[in-house]
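Here comes an entry:

___
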Amino acid sequence: MKVSLMSLGDIVDDPITGRPFSAPERYRMMIEAAEVGDTLGLHGIYIGEHHGIDYTFSAPPILMSAIAARTTKLRVGSSVALAANLDPLRMAEDYATVDVISGGRVDLVVGRGNFFVDTYALFGQSIDDSYALFSESIELACELWPGKPVHWAGKFRAPLKGQKLQPTPVQQDTPIWVGGGSSPETAKLAGRLGLNLMLPSAFGKPGKFAPMADVYREAFAEAGHKHKAQVGACWHGWVGATAAKARARYEPRYRAYHAFNTAIIKSVNPDPPPYLTATFDYDFLTTDGPAIVGGPAEFAERLSKVATTVGADVNLIKMDMGGVPREEFVDMVRLLGEEVIPKLPSSAPAVARVSA
């Protein structure tokens, strides 16, 4: 089982101490955590992208490049690159650059972000075009990635007349993951193109995303791809020395992050899905929801359980949210690498089939 870190870069003051956070601190702590994780068997680190709201990570390839220059083993990925809002050529150039700097360790996880309605307005786009923008962007990025001349014409950008991607990526196999868990069209697109699927983190039951994983695998098989389909999943997590200490320490920070996230969602979408704005319920979230909280043994057991629910090959853990200070975050990364990962099964979990 592959375990990675994930961060969206929320700026939330520490609800326990009241200490404010700054953007420079959030960036430095991610680089430090990546350096520690690189030595302890973590699979990767994945950086989010937002615009116009209080998540400070807006240019993932820049932070990823800094991490890549200080590590040797970790995969460095996005979570997610907003492919519908970005120019696909420029997006491919940015992530190909990270691939070159990292020696072939980049994962380009792309998302549609269609419930962030205001982001489309910010970039002068219509939310009604979200799927068309997204699919066109991904298909062009796939054509560009091998580094060969591309002749292409689409609806939303100027045509390409033999241009090729610069720099040429180190990885010749396209390292693109499609992020999505609510749209069958998105899951089918990932399967048809032979890409990987990354399921999102959300405050509902993890099993709600299993049908999309099934849709993806079915489309992947129907397309006749010879390589292996891969599914990733994103979780919220806090690991401590003991389960009791972890639960007590995490609750106020998870509550603060939940309030922060709910306010943002309501500000950017007039009609969000109910599971994204439900009342905070710590017991539900840490037993039946997406949160994994406990000592090393409890953390490993629950991670194995939720990963099996969706058949996740790769698991991204968001541990730095809600005002977590740098020292605690880095200590959790050490616990994750030294005491949790050795307790996990070495093989991928069996896929749990869930009816749509």
In short: Residues 3 and 315 are 5 Å apart (CA to CA). The two ends are 26 Å apart (CA to CA). The first strand starts at residue 2 and ends at 7. Confidence is low (pLDDT under 50) at residues 348-356.
